[in-house]
Amino acid sequence: MHLAYPAVLAALLFCVGLYGVLARRNAILVLMSVELMLNAVNLNLVAFDVWLRDTLHSGQALTLFTIAISAAEIGIGLAIVLAVYRNRGTSDIDRLRDTAETDDAEKLPDTAETDSADTDADGTEPPPGRADEKTGKTKKAEATT
After folding, report:
1. What would the pLDDT profile of 118-132 be if each residue is shown by its tens digit?
2. pTM for this entry
3. Which of 1, 25, 70, 135 has CA atoms 20 to 30 A from the CA of 36?
4. Which residues contact 106 (CB under 8 A, 6 or more apart)?
5. C-beta separation of 34 from 48 below 8 A
């Protein structure tokens, strides 16, 4: 058996999987593309095992480990995708970037409304361009809770 046929087929499968990972926006299609890439690697492992006539069949044994790892990966990946879909209502990868935590304290304005707590020790109000340190810390503490 020529090694070129399965090697070319595995290369084509890997390229299709790589295109699917890079071009798709749906998380389930990305997971399917990763599985396609892993199957291309499995095909190469078995083809080289047969071509080298390994008596221990180490390529086939490694293929079994790869299949087990890919089954665990797809199980965990689908669980994550389903949890995100239930919370967000979409499995679009571009919208998953919104799940990152943002610091709400950065969104608060620098100046606070004037009330009795915004006055300095001498009874004067701080300049409008400078926020009071105590008020800023309080707002940051409130925003993080």
Report:
1. 555 556 665 555 555
2. 0.64
3. 1
4. none
5. no
Structure confidence by residue, pLDDT tens digits, 1-18: 699 999 999 999 999 999
Distance of CA 98 to the CA centre of its chain: 11
Two structure tokens written together for 132? 């009071």
Q: Are 35 and 70 in contact (CB under 8 A)?
A: yes
Query: What are 25's two structure tokens?
Result: 């926006």
Q: How confident is the model at residue 46 (pLDDT cuts 50, 70, 90)?
A: very high
> How far from the centroid of its chain's Cα atoms is residue 53's Cα?
40
**Both structure tokens of 7:** 């090697």
CA distance 12 to 65: 23
